[in-house]
């Protein structure tokens, strides 16, 4: 019988993840909702790298998975709240083995325990780590205050790219508390990499400013009829 971390078990879990992405994420995001991606070339395909995104919906990670080539997507892992996704055995199995999350204990930092240890390990293994720096799902199409976890990750890996991504429309397609997605077109904007800064407040302010600029741009472009030609922005 295969142990949880044996090669056979990893092969099985990878097959489950690919089946979930192709069988659920692609149809829901690309067919049911519809998606426009701006500046795909800025998306880090190879790790180690960190993708930071706004968080309004359970559809966020499904949408982010659809941005990566199928041949690379198994190297992408989102960090997610352990208290939510590990609250019972079945959900914990689904979240870690099928969605592929890295559980992070919110507020769990102490002198003896660093809740980001598994995130460090993922980056050391050359993975693309997805982080939602708001820490939880916010109100539809609104940004919440950013937490400091990203800054601590950047302090450990100051030279790896940190790429902001803003997703517009998912808060309306499936807001917090909703169970069935409503067909609402999604615009995804990929920004240029954000340099890590030693000054935590300045770094967080710069990231917040990047998200605000992307949010404004997304709101303007979302008003354009789909299929309208536009210059790169």
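-> sequence recovered:
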């Amino acid at each position: 019988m295969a142990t949880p971390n044996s090669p056979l078990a990893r092969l099985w879990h990878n097959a489950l993840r690919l089946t979930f992405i192709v069988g659920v994420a692609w149809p829901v995001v690309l067919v049911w909702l519809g998606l426009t991606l701006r500046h795909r070339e800025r998306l880090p395909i190879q790790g180690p790298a960190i993708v930071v995104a706004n968080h309004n919906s359970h559809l966020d990670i499904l949408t982010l998975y659809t941005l990566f080539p199928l041949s690379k997507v198994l190297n992408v892992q989102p960090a997610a709240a352990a208290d939510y996704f590990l609250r019972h055995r079945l959900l914990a199995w689904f979240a870690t083995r099928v969605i592929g999350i890295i559980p992070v204990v919110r507020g769990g930092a102490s002198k003896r325990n660093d809740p980001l240890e598994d995130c460090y390990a993922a980056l050391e293994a050359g993975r693309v780590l997805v982080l939602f720096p708001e820490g939880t799902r916010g109100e539809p199409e609104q940004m919440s205050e950013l937490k400091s976890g990203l800054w601590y990750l950047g302090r450990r890996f100051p030279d790896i790219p940190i790429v902001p991504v803003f997703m517009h429309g998912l808060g309306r397609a499936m807001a917090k508390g909703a169970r069935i997605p409503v067909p609402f077109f999604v615009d995804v904007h990929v920004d240029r990499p954000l340099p890590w800064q030693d000054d935590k407040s300045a770094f967080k302010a710069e990231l917040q400013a990047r998200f605000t600029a992307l949010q404004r741009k997304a709101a303007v472009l979302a008003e354009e009829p789909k299929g309208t030609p536009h210059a790169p922005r």
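The chain is about 40% helix and 15% strand.
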